[in-house]
């Protein structure tokens, strides 16, 4: 009976996770693609894929009114340096914790042929409306109308309406030397890469233990009933 219940527990765990939405970062030009993801629900995961190489970008939360400024209390991937196209694209999973209001973000990088990426239109949104108040097009226009990138601060993994539990990975070990502005990132980048294998293994073990315990629990409930 216990063995028959384990698959049921697996299904339960899988359903607890939200839908995963992919957003590429600078894969073709200085853009997030799609720039505005609509229909995102609370619990869904925004999976940012840093596939633009070579490149160095961020996913940083902004308010609608200040498109290229790190929002106070907002999320921030930190600077993600991808040296060459053959590298495995770093991935950042951001879980939406409150989908009732639009979420806006931008890239704070200044290095590169286009100047500050945000001013070049490297902005994005989650659930921004197409028209009216808070429209994504208005957010992008306001960013591109700026004549200089405002001074930048570092955000955190947890933002307003969305949060991550880890920095993007795998990160290139030379992340801190990508550009002078790299030093203003979260600072957790260089240490993440060497420990990723161990961390992944630990996480998997924890997951398997959790599934086994859930199966035991369900088995006990059925036996008691
Ligand atoms: Cu960028």
UniProtKB/TrEMBL annotation:
The keyword Signal applies. It comes from the Eukaryota. InterPro entries: Cupredoxin, Ser-rich/MCO-related. Residues 1-16 form the signal peptide. Residues 174-201 are annotated as: Disordered. Keywords: Signal. This is Cupredoxin. It comes from Exidia glandulosa HHB12029. The lineage of its organism: Eukaryota, Fungi, Dikarya, Basidiomycota, Agaricomycotina.
């Amino acid at each position: 009976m216990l063995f028959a219940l384990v698959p049921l527990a697996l299904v339960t765990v899988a359903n607890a996770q939200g839908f995963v939405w992919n957003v590429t970062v600078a894969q073709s030009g200085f853009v997030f693609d799609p720039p505005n993801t609509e229909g995102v629900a609370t619990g869904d995961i925004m999976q940012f894929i840093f596939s633009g190489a070579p490149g160095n970008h961020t996913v940083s939360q902004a308010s609608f009114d200040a498109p290229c400024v790190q929002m106070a209390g907002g999320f921030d991937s930190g600077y993600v340096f991808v040296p060459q196209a053959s590298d495995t694209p770093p991935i950042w999973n951001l879980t939406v914790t409150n989908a009732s209001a639009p979420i806006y973000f931008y890239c704070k990088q200044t290095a590169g042929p286009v100047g500050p990426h945000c001013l070049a239109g490297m902005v994005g949104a989650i659930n921004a409306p197409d028209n009216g108040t808070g429209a994504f097009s208005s957010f992008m226009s306001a960013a591109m109308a700026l004549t200089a990138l405002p001074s930048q601060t570092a955000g955190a993994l947890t933002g307003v309406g969305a949060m991550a539990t880890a920095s993007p990975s795998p990160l290139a070990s030379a992340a801190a030397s990508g550009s002078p502005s790299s030093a203003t990132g979260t600072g957790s980048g260089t240490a993440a890469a060497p420990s990723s294998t161990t961390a992944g293994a630990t996480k998997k073990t924890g997951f398997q233990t959790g599934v086994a315990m859930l199966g035991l629990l369900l088995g006990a409930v059925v036996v008691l009933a």
